[in-house]
Amino acid sequence: LSSGVSDGKEAETVEFHLLEFSASQEVQTAHAALMLVVYLVAVSGNLLIIVLTSLDAHLQTPINLSFLDFCYISVTVPKSIINSFTHDSSISFSGCALQVFFFIDLASTEIAILTVMSYDRYVAICQPLYYEAIMDRGACVRMIALSWLSGMVSGLMHVAVTFSLPFCGSNRVPQFFCDIPQLLSLLDSKVIISEFRVMVFITCLVVVCFILITLSYVYIFSAIMRIPSKEGRFKTFSTCVPHLVVVTLFLISGSIAYVKPISSSPSILDLLLPVFYTVVPPTLNPIIYSLRNRDMKAALGRHCVRMTTQGPSPGT
């Protein structure tokens, strides 16, 4: 199934085998159950925000981020859960290509949207009088559209280059999903220069986003320190710090995973790093951005009360 030499011709890779968490079926099943719980928590939190925002027009929550996180975690985790439960680590060539496209697409979009959200916080805290003029509906739509477009372009670039190159040797991907660094280790070192160019280009974009986020928070924290009230400073800090922590984990863990050398026998670090940029952000983002919000809690309470007090429909 892996690329190789047969009758003087290079065999075509038709499927890959993803990393198994353990050789023990019991440990594999426990791992799948744990991942399933985490996945259900992340999906439930993001779907709850989407539903509440759709039902209550007064809510102003990052529904784009919730929809993005719902899709983002669904690209990698369900396949890993199914593989662990069925003890079958295979993924087709086309399935791997699609997973890479959607993962890179959504990850790049997430970075761009988090950058936009940091700018939104900067304007809200540092220039509150001009917030409505700067962050009007048109500006928000343009920034979100550009974020999604940049993600799609990134995904297409990676897939077009990586999967047009010949895979050689083993077809075992040393990761629980198809990720670019691990796939590069399966390519002939003589032909991966084009993919490295794409990675350098995307990395430069990530660095730009990181610099913009850092600058936004430098100005934000400077403005917070000028707030005379200790209670006011604490309240503003409490809304910014969780966002900064998740963004930092997301960017740093992803950057380390993409620049460190790939080992044929993954270490604990190799297994943990992807969790911080595939599972943690979509699980924590609903809590950080919306479910801690007072208006969101009030809307949830209103709809719960409405559902419990609403009588049965006539004729039942």
UniProtKB/TrEMBL annotation:
Gene3D superfamilies: Rhodopsin 7-helix transmembrane proteins
Keyword Protein biosynthesis: no
Keyword Plastid in annotation: no
InterPro entries reported in the protein's UniProt record: GPCR_Rhodpsn, GPCR_Rhodpsn_7TM, Olfact_rcpt, Olfactory_GPCR
Domain of life: Eukaryota
Domain G-protein coupled receptors family 1 profile: 33-289
Entry GO MF terms: G protein-coupled receptor activity; olfactory receptor activity
Xref: CDD domains: 7tmA_OR14-like
Protein keywords: Cell membrane, G-protein coupled receptor, Membrane, Olfaction, Receptor, Sensory transduction, Transducer, Transmembrane, Transmembrane helix
Subcellular locations according to the entry: Cell membrane
Positions of transmembrane segments: 32-55, 140-161, 196-220, 241-259, 271-291
Cellular component aspect of the GO annotation: plasma membrane
Entry membrane topology: Multi-pass membrane protein
Family that this chain belongs to: Belongs to the G-protein coupled receptor 1 family.
Biological function: Odorant receptor.
UniProt-recorded name of the protein: Olfactory receptor
Organism: Cavia porcellus (Guinea pig)
